Automatic annotation (TrEMBL):
The gene is Akap14. PANTHER family: A-KINASE ANCHOR PROTEIN 14 (PTHR35075). The lineage of its organism: Eukaryota, Metazoa, Chordata, Craniata, Vertebrata. It comes from Chionis minor (Black-faced sheathbill). It comes from the Eukaryota. This is AKA14 protein. Pfam families: AKAP28 (PF14469). GO terms for cellular component: cAMP-dependent protein kinase complex. GO terms for molecular function: protein kinase A regulatory subunit binding.
Length: 133
């Protein structure tokens, strides 16, 4: 069964603020099909000045706390970049990319269906590594 990729209208470059960017990332991840036991925290990390654009970096950290383990053994991070062109009109929407911790693959929201399994795999791999050390 082919799942529908949910996309949203991203803010334009001239209306962008760091906080509005974080809110839009929150809006976007609210469309992800993840179990409600997952909790997350989003934060702005840094601004990067490039020749033709500005990039704003964010991290969304995920975990599954439980009654028995309210502090999870491991978390999984998803890194977002919001890019604003210095060349294209500021009335165009910002560009958005994201990558999972421990992966170099860059995803675009409009081209990617997020999978909860990605978060589970990151956490399972971290726990396996901790047990080996």
């Amino acid at each position: 069964s082919k799942s529908v990729i949910k996309n949203m209208q991203w803010i334009t470059g001239n209306n962008f603020t760091v906080e509005r960017g974080r809110q839009q990332i929150e809006e976007y991840i609210s469309t992800w099909d993840v179990h409600r036991s997952w909790l997350h925290w989003s934060e702005f990390l840094r601004e990067e000045e490039l020749k033709y654009s500005k990039r704003y970096h964010y991290r969304v950290r995920w975990s599954v706390p439980t009654r028995r383990k309210p502090i999870p053994r491991a978390t999984a991070s998803v890194y977002f970049v919001i890019e604003i062109s210095k060349i294209k009109p500021a009335t165009l929407p910002v560009e958005v990319f994201f990558a999972l911790e421990s992966s170099r693959l860059i995803h675009r929201p409009e081209q990617c269906q997020f999978r909860e399994k990605w978060l589970k795999d990151i956490i399972e791999n971290k726990i396996i590594l901790m047990e080996r050390l």
